[in-house]
Design goal:
This protein has 17 helices and no strands. The chain has 403 residues and is mainly alpha-helical. It has a single domain, classed as Na+/H+ antiporter like fold (Up-down Bundle). The chain is globular, with a radius of gyration of 20 Å.
Length: 403
Amino acid sequence: MDEHIVILIIALVVLLYGYISKALSRLNISGPMMFTGFGLLLSPFGFNITQVEVNAEFVTIIVEIALVLVLFVDAALLDLKLLKQSWKIPARLLFIGLPITIIAGTYVATLIFPGEPLTYLILLALLLAPTDAALGKAVVTDLKVPKMIRSSINVESGLNDGIVFPIVLTVVAMISSGLTQAEDNSWVGYVFEQIIFGALVGGAVGYLGTKLIIKSVKHNLMASNYQNLIPIALAILSFYLAESLSGNGFIAAFFAGLYAGNTCESTRKHIEDFADTEGELLVLVSFFLFGLVFVPITLPYINFEVVLYAFLSLTVLRMLPVMISLIGAKLDLSTMFFIAWFGPRGIASILYVLIVVHEMGSIEGFETIYAVVTVTVLMSILAHGLTAQPFANRYAKSHRADS
């Protein structure tokens, strides 16, 4: 019965927010801020209108589909020609900045939480490594910001969660089997397999599926309203097909979108239309469930150390590795700072935690880890939501949107 109440509440929240969304945006109050707030208000922490278990299947499914579609859409709206010309910044962020972030995050965690097992702290660093462009939407969609910068931030957020995900699963497997350290290097092959097969499957599904759309439209076989639906079906197909073929479904969704959006301009436009409506709804519902379901169960475990690590995760542990990775990239300091700041934590971190809860069966023993993720995401929703548009406006004043 609770699940039906949640669905009704979601409908009411969408209505309420929809009526005043434009007015709220002028106050730099974002959708994720509002929906997380509504979730908290209606949770046991607030009016206690409904209770839903954190490992409820429908919660995981909604967040999982939301992430798949976010990755697909973000990739589809990337300009592949521009990416070929300016791949160096995303490469630096992913292959220099990301590893430094994980290593630094683990080391600092050992200092702040000395009583926790090392594998738990590695898991914590991994859970907070992926970024979420949805929380800085104003940055990646504002045409005043140079396209190369928007593209770099988008590519980073699109690929880092897929890269981190197989490592998360490996660490979870180590913890569940009682290992405290890797006994061999088999996980390296596993990660490589997940990335390669995910990219290949996703690229094939996106490219071939879009070519079929072009042929179908050319021969007048497809009703126009299905041009919005088929790309989304391709996103979900790529995810599940990759998972069944030893690939990573999230990487597959990203590459499916990348090829779909760059194979046909018309398809990209239809994907953009979906992102502005149905896709946005799924993202906001995910944040509502985060506030309603996950935050209340971790609140009792929040303390000074948890808040301190969350703060460092969003600032020093994110920004310093990014700044280091961009040394020599011929960017001015303000651009390096701009990219470094917009590393929000959101849907990917939430989904990863849900997966860990599902694998472990409960939150017992991981209370501190989950509390840190909760506080970090809450801080990010607020901090990046409030600063996205003002920072984008300020940055655009001194940097021409000519690329």
